[in-house]
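Appendix B. One record, verbatim.
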Amino acid sequence: MYRAPPGSAVEQIRDTLKSLVRAGLVEIGLSYHVVFELLQKASPEHRPDRLERANLLSKLCERNVLPYPSDIGQGFRFSNDGLWVPRIDLEEVEIENVVQHLMHVVTVHPDSSRHERRVHAKRKYLNAWAQSNPTGASRLHAQLWPFLFARDFAIDRDLARYLSGDMTREIANERLRFHITDPASVYTTYFDLYGRDNPIAERRDAMAHKFCTMLEELRGMLSNGDDLRRRIDEALALEGEQALSPAGRTELSKIKTELRTFRAETLSPEELSRQVPTWKDMLGEEGALIAAQILFAFHREGRPIKRSDAIDFIHACYLPHVDLWRGDKAFSDLLIKHQVKFSERVVSSLEELPSRMEAEAERLAHAA
C-alpha cells in the first residue's frame, strides 16, 4: 500500500483511508506486533523502504494505539496517547529517571569540572543552574546524554526547560517517548542506534510453538476419549457368555456418560478460558474467550498452524476493543466461519475496508 502504483485500486484505498483520517471519521490504531511486523530490520539498501512503511503508519494512525497485549488485562484499551509499547518499558524512558541517571553520569565523568560535579550533586542546585545558564546546561547534557536516542531533548533545551519548571513532566515524557513510539523514530532507535534484531521474531515463534502444543494436547485428549468410548461400546455389545454382568454394564454406561460430559467440556471455549488463567490475566476476560474460540476453530479446521498465525492470534484479541478489525485474509475467514465472538467486526479484505469504515462511521454518528 505504501508503494501502490499510481491509479491502482490500492492507491485509491490508501488515499480514501487518509481522507477518512483527516476528516476525523476514523481512528486506526497502532500495535506493537503490527509495527514490528511491518518495519523489521533491513540491510542499508532497504532502509528507505522501511521508513516509507513507517511514515505511512504515522499518517494513518497518528497517536492512536492499541495497548501491548499483556496490558489489556491491566485495563488499558484503545487510546490516543501513542503508547503501544509495554507499559513496563516506560519506566526506562521516564524523565525523572533520565535526570537521576544524567546527574550520576556528570558527577563521575572524568571530564566534568568541579563546578559541574557540584551542581549535579543535588537536584535543587541543578534546577537553579539550568534556569540561570540554559545554554551551558544544554551543551553539557547533550555531550553526556545517557542514551543513544533522544539527544535532541538536551540539544533543543527541552531538558533545561523541564529542570527550570517551564515544561511539565507529562510533556517531557511525551517528547522522550516519541523516540520509542513514532514508527520512523522506532526504526532508527531499535535498529540503527542499538543494532537490535526484530523483537517479535522470537516471541512469535514461541507463541506459535505453544499454540501448536496446546492444539496437539487437545486433539490427544479427544482422541483418547474417542478410543475409550469405542472400547466401551464394543464391551456393551458383547452377548452370550461374553456379555457383561448387569453391574458391569451399569458401570460402563456411567463411564460412557461421563466421557460424553468430558468431551463437551473439553470442546467448550468457556471452560478452556477458565482452565488457562494466564490468558485472562493477560488479555482480559473477553480476550481469553476469543483465544479459546480460535484454538477450537483451528481444531475443527484441522489445518497446521503457521508462524504468522501467532501474530494474528494476538492481534485478534483486540476484537472486543475496536469497531472494525482487519487482519490476514485466511485468518479473518477462519474467525468469520467459526463465529468467533465479535467476528462481525472482521474485515477480511483490503478492498472492502473503506466502505466498511464509512458505513461504521455513519452508524456511530447516528447512534450518538
